[in-house]
């Protein structure tokens, strides 16, 4: 399988590619894609890294695994391809942005526009079998993406990590909170959002206030 990683990420992660766990992931993924319908497309598996270089990361949002329905996943967490119906979690993300920043609800659920501004949209597991959520978990992807988070924590400063829901919050242990900003809330999924754990977190305005105070360009959410 062709590793399409941005050069800046290659420099940070090249040590991982020769490790047994990573070779096992590649072998597992090749077999899964050969025998089953899997998402995202193979060319999009590492899209989060291609659309946001290591040096450009200002914000990190962590998801669990890709959407498992046809034509949804595009390699960026919570994001869907242009023209695809917005999944429930993404709807709630946009509703919170709409209320928090008085921004009109967008037509497209493709979040490449965020990635281009320095938002790393990282799923902990980068692939999934169609209609089987979590089917590629615990195959080694999490080791790789934990390394990504650790490298950002170690080798960068003043990144804003948005940790939504219990799964993402567990990643806080990988992040040096003295060097970076951690923002936590419930998950935007309907189950969590409807219980009052998501709406009103104001993460998007808070993030832009931090960026502004640091003298950085704010994110056009």
TrEMBL record:
Positions of the catalytic residues: 65
Catalytic activity: Hydrolyzes single-stranded DNA or mismatched double-stranded DNA and polynucleotides, releasing free uracil
Molecular function GO terms recorded: uracil DNA N-glycosylase activity
Sequence ranges assigned to domain Uracil-DNA glycosylase-like in this UniProt record: 49-211
EC number: 3.2.2.27
Residues annotated as transmembrane: none
Record-linked PROSITE patterns: U_DNA_GLYCOSYLASE
Gene Ontology terms describing biological process: base-excision repair, AP site formation via deaminated base removal
An annotated GO cellular component: cytoplasm
Keywords: Cytoplasm, DNA damage, DNA repair, Hydrolase
Main location: cytoplasm
Compartments where found: Cytoplasm
Pfam family, one: UDG
Superkingdom of source: Bacteria
PANTHER family per record: URACIL-DNA GLYCOSYLASE
Family statement drawn from the similarity comment of this UniProt entry: Belongs to the uracil-DNA glycosylase (UDG) superfamily. UNG family.
Function: Excises uracil residues from the DNA which can arise as a result of misincorporation of dUMP residues by DNA polymerase or due to deamination of cytosine.
Name of this chain's protein: Uracil-DNA glycosylase
Source organism of the structure: Maribacter spongiicola
Lineage of the organism: Bacteria, Pseudomonadati, Bacteroidota, Flavobacteriia, Flavobacteriales
């Amino acid at each position: 399988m062709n590793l399409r990683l941005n050069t800046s990420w290659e420099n940070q992660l090249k040590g991982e590619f020769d490790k047994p766990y990573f070779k096992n992931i590649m072998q597992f993924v090749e077999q899964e894609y050969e025998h089953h319908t899997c998402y995202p497309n193979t060319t999009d598996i590492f899209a989060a890294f291609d659309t946001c270089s290591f040096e450009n990361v200002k914000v990190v949002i962590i998801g669990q695994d890709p959407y498992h329905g046809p034509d949804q996943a595009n390699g960026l967490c919570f994001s869907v391809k242009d023209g695809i119906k917005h999944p429930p979690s993404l709807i709630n993300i946009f509703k919170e942005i709409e209320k928090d920043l008085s921004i009109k609800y967008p037509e497209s659920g493709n979040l490449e526009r965020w990635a281009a501004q320095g938002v790393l949209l990282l799923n902990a597991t980068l692939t999934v079998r169609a209609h089987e959520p979590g089917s590629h978990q615990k195959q080694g992807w999490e080791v790789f993406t934990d390394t990504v988070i650790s490298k950002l924590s170690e080798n960068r400063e003043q990144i804003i990590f948005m940790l939504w829901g219990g799964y993402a919050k567990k990643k806080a242990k990988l992040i040096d909170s003295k060097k970076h900003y951690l923002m936590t809330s419930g998950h935007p999924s309907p189950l969590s959002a409807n219980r009052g754990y998501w709406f009103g977190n104001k993460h998007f305005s808070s993030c832009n206030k931090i960026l502004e105070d640091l003298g950085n360009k704010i994110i056009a959410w």
